[in-house]
Amino acid sequence: MIQTDTATIRQVILHRVADDETKSVLSDEVTDLGDDDEAVLFRRIMLKHFSSHTSTFEFTHPVGVQHNVLFNLAKQLLEEGDFAEISKDIARHLISVSKHPNIKEGDLFIAAMDDVEFATKHYRAIGICKYEDKDSYLETNTAGKHVRFTLKKGIGGRKPDKAVLILFTDEPYTLLISDNSSTETDYWQNEFIKHKPKNDFVNNTNDVMGLTRAFITEEIPQHYQVTKADQIDFMNRSVEYFKTHETFDKKEFEQEVFHHDDLIKTFRKFDKEYREENELELSDSFEISQQSVKKQARAFKSVLKLDKNFHIYIHGNRELIEQGVDNEGRKYYKIFYEEES
Question: How much is the mean pLDDT over the chain?
Fold first, then answer.
């Protein structure tokens, strides 16, 4: 989703947050990164876990985004407000929503960054990472003829328990969100950040591929007599379209994948109902996110399973496989090919 090699982390600050400000430690010490090893480590801490994300979000609020606390604080940082003071306000905001007894205290890193690459463009960004648990490691030292080790705890290569990366794209800003916990995440997702899916090329790619797969596997068999091989062929053509085009065009996609007017009309009806039921705002033309395609393509199964005896992988020309029934009523597939490999 993002490229981190060009990113520069300008400033970092660390706060210790608990469920009450009196139990927390809000620091005034801002670190300006200059050492190469430190810069590499902080890029890994703040950014690496976002590189494979294929969902994007934006700030929201029931009244209006201008009432979203984190949105306003991020905007102040973008406008070159006092980094230390605004970071403390971010920490206070997190503390104020951390009231559930199961929420752990932790180390909160806040970093200001430049040149984070997203969709081939470079943006300023704010990274916020909370570590609730620490790694154990052994520190060794030599004194004379003795080598000793000490067990210590710290933060290294593991993912943060919770994180958000705010990319200063044109408004609405683009958010990447990480939440490594399986329970008690509402305070982070819906109170600290307050977000909703963003109507952009990343989510459009995910959603159109998702509705296409649902149409092929669930809707087509209700209206047409199709074999599993036919469905796999539709699946393959859908994925091939997304892999070989830089932009999605709905009419072009319909013609290349479904061909027939009746089937296209059925798809359009299903598309309209799917959008309404799932409250999706989808564009009929958008840039295709290849990372989203790679992830979604895993769900487009191209395996034809025949009883418990055979699996046929169909990747190419549908016309090279025929289905039939012999005189004894046994079903069969006939496969044509030129070479074995």
Answer: 88
